[in-house]
Amino acid sequence: MSRIQDHKVGMAAIDSFRAISDVFPNRGQLWRFLGTLSAQLVENNCLELLVGEYSLPRDLDLPELAMADVVIYLEVERLVASDLRTLCIYKMRGSKYVEGRQAFYVNDDGIQFLGASTEPLAVGPIEEVEPIWPPA
Asked: What one-character DSSP code corresponds to residue 133?
């Protein structure tokens, strides 16, 4: 925490957070650690990004996901000719969001969203699809 204070860090990312949470002997100790971590980051005006591999929606009751303000699930589905990348927002406290899987691709202009679907997605080549998000 002293490094965050000394360097006035605006965002802290912890990769493989699931591995950190797995070392706590019980949920009570994990809850206390998360509460202390969160309070110290908020006190220092620092955004916390926890990255981990989870099975959603099954793992939403884990302490680190239960206390999170936002839970976003990224997935890559291997297709014959290309990969289908999707994003699904499971939780966004205090904000409205579009439910369902959001297909997207990344190009020189950034992230291009193809739309939302609660059904399995089937997407043709990127050149044939008009991005619908963000709105023009």
From this structure: B
Measure the CA angle with vertex 63, ends 35 and 120; round to 5°: 135
| 3 within 8 A of 9, measured Cβ to Cβ | yes
Instruction: Per-residue pLDDT tens, the chain, 136 aa: give them.
Output: 677 777 788 888 888 888 888 899 998 999 999 998 888 888 888 888 889 899 988 998 899 988 888 999 999 888 888 888 999 989 988 888 888 888 888 889 888 888 665 555 444 444 444 444 444 4
Question: For residues 104 and 115, is the Cβ–Cβ distance under 8 A?
Answer: no
Q: What ranges make up the beta strands (E) of 51-134? A: 70-78, 83-92, 101-107, 110-117
Measured CA to CA, the distance from residue 84 to residue 59 in angstroms comes to 23
Q: Which two tokens stand for residue 109?
A: 């202009």
Provide the whole-model pTM. Answer: 0.69
Taking alpha carbons only, the member of 42, 43, 51, 45 closest to residue 20 is: 51
Which residues are bridge partners to 107 per DSSP?
110
Rounded to the nearest angstrom, the gap between the alpha carbon of residue 34 and the centroid of all alpha carbons in its chain is: 17
Asked whether 3 and 41 are in contact (CB, 8 A), the reply is no
